[in-house]
Design brief:
Layout (H helix, E strand, L loop, with lengths): L10 H7 L16 E2 L3 E4 L2 E7 L6 E7 L7 E5 L13 H26 E7 L4 E9 L6 E8 L4 E7 L7 H9 L7
Antiparallel strand pairs: 1-2, 2-3, 3-4, 4-5, 6-7, 7-8, 8-9
Length: 183
């Protein structure tokens, strides 16, 4: 009975292309969970108790996974010995997660409000929603000025400088100028 040499493009070739610690049956790694007195990592968040610089107190920093800066830094309670911090526990961690999530949500809402403005113009026969969407690009910051009917039909869209001031007067002037790019 003749044996054939293994096909170089077959199963063995595929296995050798995988990293050495990977098997075909491996499932995605579970997020790491750490529950130490000064460091907790769970549910996409890390709480780290840190010494306040120039102070005898302690602080806790809450950082979302993948972020380089903490979403929240706040004071942390001293332990019974009045020297060391109180250890983190489940209730404290999830309270911190809730607080940090709320801070992050408010920050996102504020950023959205700064970058997206809108107003409604009531003209003789139609109501228009005029929007200004700022695109904070590092190389070419700009904004989009758009006019939409109340049913969602877009009438016009022009690119404007990110410094364009949207108000009733500027929106009315744009409509009166037949949606030409403001000068």
């Amino acid at each position: 009975m003749a044996t054939r040499a293994p096909d170089p493009r077959g199963y063995h070739a595929c296995m050798s292309a995988l990293p050495p610690d990977t098997s075909i049956d491996d499932e995605p790694a579970e997020p790491e969970t750490i529950k130490q007195p000064r460091l907790w990592k769970d549910d996409g968040w890390t709480a780290k108790v840190i010494k306040n610089e120039g102070d005898e107190g302690w602080a806790v920093a809450m950082t979302r996974d993948g972020e380089s800066e903490p979403a929240l830094v706040g004071p942390w309670t001293m332990g019974r010995d009045k020297k060391n911090p109180k250890p983190l526990d489940t209730n404290a961690f999830y309270t911190l997660v809730k607080t940090a999530s709320e801070v992050q949500r408010r920050h996102e809402q504020q950023l959205h409000a700064q970058l997206h403005k809108s107003l409604v113009l009531s003209l003789a026969q139609v109501r228009l929603v005029i929007t200004l969407d700022i695109v904070p690009d590092d190389y070419e910051p700009h904004a989009w000025l758009a006019a939409t009917e109340t049913d969602g039909t877009e009438i016009a869209r022009v690119k404007v400088p990110p410094t364009f001031k949207l108000n009733t007067a500027s929106a009315t002037a744009w409509v009166d100028n037949e949606f030409q790019k403001p000068g």
